[in-house]
């Protein structure tokens, strides 16, 4: 569903000519309000009271503005200026930036498997954006730029809310941060004025906001009750695979052999990190 929402976003941009800020605002407001309402039935009154304290609200606003908003906006800008397949693949560079950040923060060289992941991610990215022809890019420069920024933003999105998620319901944190993020872009809605959409375009928005955000996210959370986090991380590779396959078979995307190899290399980094985490957890259990 996450992958398909990227394809529908690309079709929406092509049909309407609207800006990414418009779609991001609508998506985040719809999904955020619904997630917050769901959280209202999950969270106790005591936790709500703690959550609304000034210190926690400040952390929420920081996460919304520097985590949620950039991760959403850069991804849809990458789709608008490139395509759903490349945007979703480049977004998976997030683990690469997390590895680099942790190495700098701890002033410690990355592990060997981390170095292998970095090299594979970089080489794979070059193959994806050039399709094996190093003389020119296979996607627009702005699409490449925003795709890389989507990877950086995804890393920030992963690193920022740790304290909030340790103390409060994850649906509540995500839903309320989406509402704040959606409100940030309301000037874009006002500036656009009245927008006339046909039934198909409204259907695209409905899928992106409901199935590709709300339902997909709840499915992901529910899977954590049955699977280890590293396993869900590896299964999330279906997102770029879905976006790419749909783009190739239904949207006319031309994918060369070198580009396919690049996709495999980028996604392999997720498997390497997942297997590494699983091995570490196994060793800790033995100890």
UniProtKB/TrEMBL annotation:
How does this protein sit in the membrane? Multi-pass membrane protein
Q: Where is the EamA domain?
A: 1-129, 142-272
**Which Pfam families does the record match to this protein?**
EamA (PF00892)
- Which PANTHER family does the UniProt entry name for this protein? EAMA DOMAIN-CONTAINING PROTEIN (PTHR32322:SF2), INNER MEMBRANE TRANSPORTER (PTHR32322)
Q: Where are the transmembrane segments?
A: 20-44, 56-78, 84-103, 115-132, 138-158, 170-190, 202-221, 233-251, 257-276
Localization annotation: Endomembrane system
Q: Which family does it belong to?
A: Belongs to the EamA transporter family.
**What is the name of this protein?**
DMT superfamily drug/metabolite transporter
The upper taxonomy is: Bacteria, Bacillati, Bacillota, Bacilli, Lactobacillales
Reading the lineage from the top rank, the first entry is Bacteria
The cellular component terms of Gene Ontology attached to this UniProt record, alphabetical and capped at eight, are: membrane
InterPro entries in alphabetical order: AA-Vitamin_Transporters, EamA_dom, EmrE-like
Ordered alphabetically, the record's keywords are:
Membrane, Transmembrane, Transmembrane helix
């Amino acid at each position: 569903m996450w992958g398909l929402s990227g394809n529908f976003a690309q079709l929406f941009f092509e049909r309407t000519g609207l800006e990414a800020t418009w779609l991001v605002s609508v998506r985040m407001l719809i999904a955020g309000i619904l997630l917050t309402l769901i959280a209202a039935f999950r969270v106790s009154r005591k936790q709500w009271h703690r959550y609304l304290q000034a210190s926690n609200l400040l952390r929420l606003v920081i996460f919304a503005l520097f985590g949620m908003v950039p991760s959403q906006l850069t991804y849809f800008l990458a789709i608008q200026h490139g395509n759903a397949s490349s945007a979703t693949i480049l977004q998976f560079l997030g683990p690469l930036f997390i590895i680099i950040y942790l190495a700098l923060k701890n002033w410690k060289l990355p592990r060997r498997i981390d170095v292998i992941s970095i090299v594979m991610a970089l080489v794979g990215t070059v193959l994806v954006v050039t399709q094996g022809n190093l003389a020119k890019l296979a996607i627009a420069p702005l699409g490449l730029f925003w795709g890389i920024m989507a990877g950086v933003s995804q890393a920030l999105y992963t690193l920022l809310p740790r304290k909030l998620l340790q103390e409060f319901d994850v649906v509540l944190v995500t839903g309320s941060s989406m509402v704040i993020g959606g409100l940030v872009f309301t000037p874009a809605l006002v500036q656009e004025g009245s927008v006339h959409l046909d039934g198909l375009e409204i259907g695209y928005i409905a899928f992106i906001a409901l199935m590709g955000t709300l339902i997909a996210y709840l499915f992901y959370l529910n899977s954590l009750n049955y699977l280890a986090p590293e396993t869900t991380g590896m299964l999330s590779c279906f997102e770029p695979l879905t976006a790419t396959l749909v783009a190739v078979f239904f949207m006319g995307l031309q994918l060369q052999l070198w580009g396919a190899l690049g996709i495999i290399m980028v996604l392999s980094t997720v498997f390497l990190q997942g297997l590494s985490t699983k091995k570490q957890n196994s060793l800790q259990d033995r100890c």
